[in-house]
Task: structure prediction
Amino acid sequence: MTATQADLRIDRPSVADGAALWRIAKESGTLDVNSSYSYLLWCRDFAGTSAVARSEGGGPVGFVTGYVRPDAPETLLVWQVAVDGAYRGRGLAAALLDGLTARVAAERPLTTVETTITPGNTASERLFTSYAARHGADVTREVLFDTGLFPDGPHDPEVLYRIGPLTSA
Result:
Protein backbone atom coordinates (compact mmCIF):
# COMPACT_ATOMS: atom_id res chain seq x y z
CA MET A 1 0.00 0.00 0.00
CA THR A 2 1.44 3.39 -0.94
CA ALA A 3 1.06 6.57 1.02
CA THR A 4 -0.67 9.54 -0.56
CA GLN A 5 0.30 13.17 -0.15
CA ALA A 6 -2.62 13.47 2.30
CA ASP A 7 -0.88 10.95 4.58
CA LEU A 8 2.13 13.27 4.90
CA ARG A 9 2.71 16.23 7.19
CA ILE A 10 4.90 19.22 6.33
CA ASP A 11 6.64 21.08 9.14
CA ARG A 12 9.98 22.48 10.30
CA PRO A 13 12.97 20.17 10.49
CA SER A 14 14.69 19.42 13.79
CA VAL A 15 18.30 18.42 14.45
CA ALA A 16 17.12 14.82 14.79
CA ASP A 17 16.11 14.98 11.08
CA GLY A 18 19.61 15.89 9.84
CA ALA A 19 20.75 12.32 9.15
CA ALA A 20 17.60 11.54 7.17
CA LEU A 21 17.96 14.71 5.09
CA TRP A 22 21.56 13.78 4.33
CA ARG A 23 20.46 10.27 3.27
CA ILE A 24 17.65 11.60 1.04
CA ALA A 25 20.05 14.09 -0.60
CA LYS A 26 22.68 11.39 -1.12
CA GLU A 27 20.17 8.96 -2.63
CA SER A 28 18.67 11.62 -4.92
CA GLY A 29 21.44 11.06 -7.44
CA THR A 30 21.30 14.69 -8.61
CA LEU A 31 22.17 16.91 -5.66
CA ASP A 32 25.62 17.99 -4.57
CA VAL A 33 25.72 16.22 -1.22
CA ASN A 34 27.05 18.29 1.64
CA SER A 35 28.66 16.80 4.74
CA SER A 36 26.34 15.09 7.21
CA TYR A 37 27.42 17.75 9.70
CA SER A 38 26.06 20.52 7.45
CA TYR A 39 22.59 18.93 7.43
CA LEU A 40 22.62 18.85 11.24
CA LEU A 41 23.58 22.54 11.32
CA TRP A 42 20.99 23.37 8.67
CA CYS A 43 18.24 21.73 10.74
CA ARG A 44 19.36 23.70 13.79
CA ASP A 45 20.14 27.12 12.32
CA PHE A 46 17.82 27.36 9.31
CA ALA A 47 14.77 25.37 10.43
CA GLY A 48 12.64 28.50 10.08
CA THR A 49 13.43 28.73 6.37
CA SER A 50 13.35 25.01 5.64
CA ALA A 51 10.63 22.35 5.56
CA VAL A 52 10.41 18.61 5.92
CA ALA A 53 7.68 16.21 4.79
CA ARG A 54 6.98 13.47 7.31
CA SER A 55 5.45 10.08 6.72
CA GLU A 56 2.64 8.79 8.88
CA GLY A 57 5.30 7.41 11.24
CA GLY A 58 6.96 10.83 11.55
CA GLY A 59 10.14 10.14 9.61
CA PRO A 60 11.33 12.58 6.92
CA VAL A 61 10.54 11.59 3.34
CA GLY A 62 11.34 14.89 1.66
CA PHE A 63 12.76 18.31 2.40
CA VAL A 64 13.49 21.78 1.15
CA THR A 65 16.28 23.86 2.68
CA GLY A 66 16.61 27.58 2.27
CA TYR A 67 17.62 30.85 3.85
CA VAL A 68 16.74 34.51 3.65
CA ARG A 69 19.53 36.34 1.86
CA PRO A 70 21.20 38.77 4.29
CA ASP A 71 21.65 41.46 1.64
CA ALA A 72 18.16 40.88 0.16
CA PRO A 73 15.82 40.29 3.14
CA GLU A 74 12.72 39.84 0.94
CA THR A 75 14.40 36.99 -0.98
CA LEU A 76 14.32 33.33 0.01
CA LEU A 77 17.13 31.31 -1.55
CA VAL A 78 16.17 27.66 -1.88
CA TRP A 79 19.30 25.58 -1.39
CA GLN A 80 18.10 22.01 -1.94
CA VAL A 81 14.87 20.12 -2.60
CA ALA A 82 14.79 16.34 -2.40
CA VAL A 83 12.17 13.62 -2.03
CA ASP A 84 12.78 10.00 -1.05
CA GLY A 85 12.50 7.73 -4.09
CA ALA A 86 9.48 5.90 -2.68
CA TYR A 87 7.53 9.19 -2.48
CA ARG A 88 8.40 10.78 -5.84
CA GLY A 89 5.82 11.54 -8.50
CA ARG A 90 3.13 12.74 -6.11
CA GLY A 91 3.71 16.49 -6.18
CA LEU A 92 5.50 16.44 -2.84
CA ALA A 93 8.36 18.72 -3.92
CA ALA A 94 5.84 21.34 -5.10
CA ALA A 95 3.85 21.01 -1.86
CA LEU A 96 7.04 21.45 0.18
CA LEU A 97 8.04 24.54 -1.80
CA ASP A 98 4.55 26.07 -1.60
CA GLY A 99 4.28 25.30 2.12
CA LEU A 100 7.68 26.76 2.92
CA THR A 101 7.16 29.98 1.00
CA ALA A 102 3.70 30.45 2.52
CA ARG A 103 5.19 30.05 6.01
CA VAL A 104 8.07 32.44 5.33
CA ALA A 105 5.71 35.00 3.73
CA ALA A 106 3.46 34.85 6.81
CA GLU A 107 6.44 35.81 8.98
CA ARG A 108 8.13 38.47 6.81
CA PRO A 109 7.77 40.24 3.46
CA LEU A 110 8.68 37.84 0.65
CA THR A 111 8.86 39.08 -2.93
CA THR A 112 11.38 36.76 -4.56
CA VAL A 113 12.49 33.13 -4.52
CA GLU A 114 15.90 32.23 -5.89
CA THR A 115 17.56 28.91 -6.55
CA THR A 116 20.39 27.59 -8.66
CA ILE A 117 20.00 24.74 -11.11
CA THR A 118 22.61 23.01 -13.22
CA PRO A 119 21.80 22.74 -16.94
CA GLY A 120 20.00 19.51 -17.74
CA ASN A 121 18.31 19.12 -14.34
CA THR A 122 14.87 19.06 -15.93
CA ALA A 123 13.05 18.00 -12.74
CA SER A 124 14.25 21.12 -10.91
CA GLU A 125 13.63 23.32 -13.95
CA ARG A 126 10.02 22.07 -14.07
CA LEU A 127 9.55 22.41 -10.31
CA PHE A 128 10.62 26.04 -10.21
CA THR A 129 9.01 27.20 -13.46
CA SER A 130 5.70 25.64 -12.38
CA TYR A 131 6.11 27.32 -8.97
CA ALA A 132 6.49 30.67 -10.76
CA ALA A 133 3.37 30.01 -12.85
CA ARG A 134 1.30 29.07 -9.77
CA HIS A 135 2.37 32.26 -8.03
CA GLY A 136 1.99 34.63 -10.98
CA ALA A 137 5.71 35.45 -11.11
CA ASP A 138 8.30 35.88 -13.82
CA VAL A 139 11.46 33.77 -14.02
CA THR A 140 14.82 35.21 -15.02
CA ARG A 141 17.92 33.07 -15.50
CA GLU A 142 21.61 33.93 -15.47
CA VAL A 143 24.78 32.00 -14.71
CA LEU A 144 25.66 32.69 -11.08
CA PHE A 145 28.72 30.45 -10.74
CA ASP A 146 30.56 29.44 -13.90
CA THR A 147 32.37 26.13 -14.23
CA GLY A 148 35.81 27.63 -13.60
CA LEU A 149 34.89 28.88 -10.11
CA PHE A 150 34.60 25.39 -8.63
CA PRO A 151 37.91 24.27 -7.07
CA ASP A 152 37.10 20.55 -6.83
CA GLY A 153 37.16 19.53 -10.47
CA PRO A 154 34.66 19.66 -13.28
CA HIS A 155 31.30 21.07 -12.23
CA ASP A 156 28.46 22.27 -14.38
CA PRO A 157 27.65 25.97 -14.07
CA GLU A 158 25.02 26.94 -11.51
CA VAL A 159 22.27 28.96 -13.18
CA LEU A 160 20.43 31.38 -10.90
CA TYR A 161 16.65 31.26 -11.28
CA ARG A 162 15.09 34.42 -9.85
CA ILE A 163 11.32 34.11 -9.40
CA GLY A 164 9.33 37.25 -8.70
CA PRO A 165 7.74 39.42 -7.91
CA LEU A 166 5.50 36.97 -6.11
CA THR A 167 1.81 37.84 -6.18
CA SER A 168 0.95 35.14 -3.67
CA ALA A 169 3.22 32.97 -1.62
